[in-house]
Amino acid sequence: MSATAEEELQVLYDNLRQIRLVNYVTLSCTAFLVYDISTNLDREVPLIWRYYRNTNINNEYISWRSRVRRALVQTLFLFGRYYALFYLA
């Protein structure tokens, strides 16, 4: 084998090693996010998922601006919370 072939093989091995390390980091980040989401889900459900029911106990009228604001808060929270998980997976 010539020196060029050995150098090319070394570059290939280095690239494969880097790809494997990136996969390990991605897997560990995904595992951490799943752990974080599962441990905080009990606090998240009453505050975000049932946001309308928290303030509308007596069936009083809620203006459209408040509804839009609540929908925006929920959307931004859910996007910020779960986007990384879907991106990594």
TrEMBL record:
InterPro entries: DUF6533. It comes from the Eukaryota. Pfam families: DUF6533 (PF20151). The lineage of its organism: Eukaryota, Fungi, Dikarya, Basidiomycota, Agaricomycotina. Residues 24-85 form the DUF6533 domain. This is DUF6533 domain-containing protein.
